[in-house]
Predict the structure.
Amino acid sequence: MQQRLEKDWELSIGPDTVRLFILKAKALSAAVNEDYADGSEHEVELDGESHVNHHHDGLAEESSENLTEEELRELINDLNVDEAAELIALAWVGRGDYDAAEWADALAAARERANKRTAKYLLGMPLLADWLEEGLEAIGA
C-alpha cells in the first residue's frame, strides 16, 4: 500500500528541496529569541546609554537572523506555483489541517492560496520546520 500512496503523491518539489527549507526554517527559529516567538514587543527594556550598548552588541546577531530569513524568503519566492502549493499543502498536512488521505484536497486549497505572499504566509508559521517534516512523513516522501 505504501508504494501506491507514493505514486499518488508524486511531488513537483523534491523532498530534498523541502528538507532544505526545513533546515533553513530550523536555523531561523533557533536564532529567534523566545520572547520574540511569544509575540512580546518588549523583549528588552532600554534607557539612555543601555540602548546604545544593546544595539551595538546585537548587530551581528540581527544581521545573521535577517540573512537566514531573507535566504528562506528568496527560496520560497523562487518556487513555481505548483511547488509553492505543495509546500503549503505539506505544512497543512503536518499541522493537522488535513490528513494524508486528503492530500488532493489540501493541494487544491493550497493552489488557491499560493500567490506572491506565499513566503510571508509560510514564514509566519511558528512551527514551519516541524510541520513540513511531519507533512513529508505523512505522505511517505
Q: What stands out?
A: Residues 13 and 125 are 20 Å apart (CA to CA). Confidence is low (pLDDT under 50) at residues 1-7, 33-65. Helices lie at 2-8, 15-31, 34-37, 48-77, 81-95, 103-113, 118-123, 128-139. The two ends are 14 Å apart (CA to CA).
